[in-house]
Amino acid sequence: MADHLTIATHPLVQHKLTLMRKADTPTAQFRQLLREISQLLAYEVTRDLELTTARITTPLVEMDAPVLAGPKLALVSILRAGNGLLDGMLDLIPSARVGFIGLYRDEVTLKPVEYYAKLPAGLETRRTIVVDPMLATGNSSAAAVSMLKAKGARDIRFLCLLAAPEGVARMAQAHPDVPITTGALDERLNDKGYIVPGLGDAGDRMFGTK
Ligand code: URA
Predict the structure, then answer these.
(1) CATH of the domain at 63
(2) pTM of structure
């Protein structure tokens, strides 16, 4: 599992995550923290992007300066909570293409069913970063990644704020080729599928719903 999972141990990530976990953190602050933490997680999940050089002229001399070599990035948000991670990521990667996948759980089969998908073209040639704050059972994440692979995506990463061991194991079993970056690996899921200690329902906390 070690290669498959990266925990963003940066002190700012850990401090902000603690504030987000607190039950009395109000919606506006939760949203602001999520935006800030998303920027830090974007930094972490893109740290192995390849560089090449371009010839530029500074006010003093010419130089070969580092620039991103590609591939181009696609960010795919799993609705609705994934959208909370998008804004901060786009602050750092403004030229990324963005896709959305909506899934609900069929009450009979308990399997994720797609109700919405809008994806950028050319996923075959992009690095695709799937974003969802809470990797809980991993069922919807695994289904979203399967769908992206069916549409041609090959170079896929998964980014979340909190992960449960159950979700990490599910993703490792279904998609061992997809590395996961998370802010923390929590203890477990409870019988309602919430991550413990967790932060509650991420969508409700970021949008102020209940
Ligand atoms: N989704 C959430 O929003 N919170 C959890 O704890 C698990 C899944």
Answers:
(1) 3.40.50.2020
(2) 0.94
